From TrEMBL:
It holds the Pfam family ABC_tran. This is ATP-binding cassette subfamily C protein. Residues 315-394, 666-685 are annotated as: Disordered. Keywords: ATP-binding, Membrane, Nucleotide-binding, Transmembrane, Transmembrane helix. It is a multi-pass membrane protein. One of its GO terms (molecular function) is ATP hydrolysis activity. Residues 27-285 form the ABC transmembrane type-1 domain.
Length: 685
């Protein structure tokens, strides 16, 4: 995990500093004022007590306090000048880094990463400035305080000096290992953040491509790596606390404990107070800043500098690694642990096992009792289903409430729903009503804020529930392999060819499979239309062993006839339960049950019943009424999106390949020109 330092990084840093001797001298000169201030912070009050207040000469005491105050003012002036000198050191440092980064970006043509790198340059500059200030401040403070202690009474130095030296030595000894752990932790944290930044927005796609197990394994390993790094850092962090305790806090205890002895050996009360002031007001804060600054910021600076000063060779290696892990065409699924073999055999096709021997999500039977291949098209049995015992619902939601933010209004509220195995449910509602949110809750991609979701009796989220459902979103994924590999992707075992052909026949893929050249033909995802990709994805899902199929507008690019065939095929899977987010009235009519979602309120029943009892459903059905058709030249997606963008309802749209999306009536329909000019009219539903 730890990056190797490019040779010469410390040497380059030293050269950089030596080339700026004048600035360093200026810095030292102004720092002397701060040293004087520190000296007076203990010495002034000591003299004020001993020579003034305790000797009955209040004027002298006040004079010493005034001198201390003037010292503080001079010190503050010095600190202000120090900032200017530090800027003279830090700005050229930043300029040098920017030059290197830009030159490398121009040389490698990696201009895209420049903005990110310049941001890191700013981090490096700030951290470097902080480190210069912290270490300089410690040296200045230590010199001022130790000189003050010696001047007040040499025995004070004997009490404070040894623990301070011991704490410093302990800190110095832990510096390198601590910096390494800190660096490992930072890298692990960055790797996890990068991974989650990619994975989280794509959870739906991960589920749709059946890559959950692979992603969980990869991300889980990164979480583990960060945990290990954090633990190691914490162990070494304890030593850091010990060094601060020994170097900064132990002297206070020793001064107090040794006070009687010190007072009896010529140390005055004022000197004792001065010594305590040195330790508590100067040394302890300076040591704390140093330990924190060098331990944390120092490691961060090292990481950032290594990254920024990477040679072109390092960059090329990193780019090659990144490229190797990227997908080839954006349509290739993440490999399941190992490279995906072309495992089409004479009669069977099966996706590869992950290298670690785990089974992809949606594939395994926890008890391993039945081979799904032997079971043919029989889908796995739900939880707790024993002979004579009533099977649990295929899907059950109990008082499910979900909001996207803690302060946001719930999208789903107190929703109760029980679907028996074999049921066919259509979910309808205006755009934004929460239909996709509901499917995401059932698929375990979202967690309800209240209530419970169960799939086949298994709690969601959970491995059994994940294995019991398959989600097919609107975006259909087709991978750059053979058609057979695409179809078998969600199946754990070699899939008999006849089974794939039967699935293709049931869903309506057969003509396309024929055109492509059969199951063994390689598929070019980009050459397929959106509807053709949906057919492949639907057949793949149909072949999976998940009893519950969630079709979230998964047929939106299909013509009504093909859509009907596909939906009927899913509804007819033995023991299979179907939930369809409907985008055509025909879908809702076909389903035995309809769930009407409208924000927080819902209605549930059969089509006829809802037509009588639910005004919103009647509205939706009205908006789905016969409508003008599209010309074949009109891309279906473009039409659909045009209507979505305009948030149009009113007379719904349909046609050959067209789509109707249920929208709340908000305005006039702005039909695309083809439609307004008239075209072959179609009817559906
Ligand atoms: N990731 C998110 N963060 C915040 N709000 C979201 C998020 N996703 C959806 N929403 C909001 O939640 C509500 C329900 O969205 P959802 O996509 O579930 O509706 P829908 O009925 O599926 O709509 P459509 O038919 O347009 O797909 C909408 O108001 C939407 O803006």
């Amino acid at each position: 995990m730890t990056a190797r330092a490019p040779a010469g990084l410390p040497a380059r840093g030293l050269r950089f500093l030596l080339a700026r001797r004048r600035v360093l001298l200026r810095l030292t000169a102004w720092s002397v004022l701060e040293t004087g201030q520190t000296f007076l912070l203990g010495y002034g009050p000591a003299r004020a007590l001993d020579d003034g207040f305790l000797a009955g000469r209040a004027g002298v005491g006040l004079a010493w306090l005034a001198v201390t105050g003037i010292g503080v003012l001079l010190g503050a002036y010095g600190t202000a000048r120090v900032y200017a000198a530090v800027a003279a050191l830090v700005e050229p440092f930043r300029d040098r880094l920017v030059e290197r980064v830009v030159a490398r970006g121009v040389r490698t043509g990696d201009a895209g990463s420049l903005s990110g790198l310049t941001q890191q340059v700013e981090i490096a500059r700030d951290t470097f400035a902080g480190l210069v200030m912290v270490s300089r401040s410690f040296v200045v403070t230590a010199v001022g305080a130790l000189a003050g202690l010696f001047t007040l009474a040499p025995p004070l130095l004997l009490v404070v000096g040894p623990p301070l030296a011991l704490g410093m030595a302990l800190f110095a000894a832990t510096l390198r290992p601590l910096a390494r752990r800190q660096e490992t932790f930072l890298l692990a944290d960055e790797a996890l953040a990068g991974d989650l930044g990619t994975v989280c927005p794509g959870l739906r796609d991960v589920t749709a491509t059946g890559a959950e197990a692979h992603i969980a394994a990869g991300t889980g390993e990164r979480v583990e790596a960060e945990l290990r790094a954090a633990r190691a850092l914490a162990h070494w962090g304890v030593l850091r606390v010990v060094s601060l305790t020994v170097g900064g806090q132990l002297p206070i205890v020793l001064l107090l404990a040794a006070a009687p002895w010190l007072l009896s050996h010529g140390v005055t009360a004022g000197a004792l107070v001065g010594a305590l002031a040195y330790v508590t007001q100067s040394l302890l804060p300076a040591l704390r800043n140093l330990i924190h600054g060098l331990g944390t910021s120092g490691s961060r600076l090292t990481v950032v500098l290594r990254r920024l000063t990477r040679t072109d060779t390092d960059t090329a290696t990193a780019t090659a690694t990144a490229t190797a892990t990227a997908t080839d065409d954006g349509n290739t699924p993440p490999p399941l642990g190992a490279a995906r073999p072309a495992n089409t055999t004479a009669g069977t096709v099966g996706p590869p096992r992950p290298a670690d021997g785990t089974t992809p999500a949606g594939a395994s039977r926890p008890d391993g009792s039945r081979s799904p291949t032997q079971a043919g098209r029989s889908l796995p049995r739900p939880a707790r289903s024993r002979p004579g015992e009533e099977a649990p619902p295929a899907l059950s939601l109990t008082s499910v409430t979900f909001a996207y933010g803690s302060a946001s209004a719930p999208v789903v509220q107190d929703l109760d729903l029980d679907l028996p195995p074999g049921a066919h449910l259509a979910v309808v509602g205006p755009s934004g009503a929460g239909k996709s949110t509901l499917t995401a809750l059932v698929a375990g991609l979202l967690t309800p804020s209240r209530g419970a979701v169960r799939v086949g009796g298994h709690p969601v989220p959970g491995p059994d529930a994940a294995a019991g459902r398959v989600l097919i979103p609107q975006e259909a994924y087709v991978f750059g392999g053979t058609l057979a590999e695409n179809l078998a992707y969600l199946r754990p075992y070699p899939v008999p060819e006849e089974e794939m052909l039967a699935a293709a026949d049931a869903v309506g893929l057969t003509p396309l499979a024929g055109r492509l050249g059969g199951l063994g033909a390689r598929v070019d995802p980009a050459a397929l239309s959106a509807g053709e990709r949906q057919l492949v994805a639907l057949t793949r899902a149909w072949l999976s062993h998940a009893p519950l199929a969630l079709l979230d507008e998964a047929t939106c690019h299909l013509d009504p006839g093909t859509e009907e065939r596909a939906e009927r095929a899913f509804a007819a899977r033995p023991g299979g339960t179907l939930v369809v987010v409907a985008h055509r009235i025909s879908s809702a009519r076909r389903a035995g049950r309809v769930l009407v979602m409208d924000g927080r309120s819902t209605a549930y029943g059969g089509h006829e019943e809802l037509m009588r009892s639910c005004a919103l459903y009647r509205d939706l059905v009205g908006s789905w009424a016969p409508a003008p058709a599209l010309r074949r030249s009109e891309p279906a997606l473009a039409l659909r999106d045009a209507y979505r963008v305009d948030a149009v309802a009113g007379p719904g749209l349909a046609g050959d390949g067209g789509h109707v999306v249920a929208h709340r009536p908000v305005g006039q329909v702005q039909a695309p020109r083809d439609l307004r000019d008239g075209g072959p009219l179609g009817r559906e539903g």
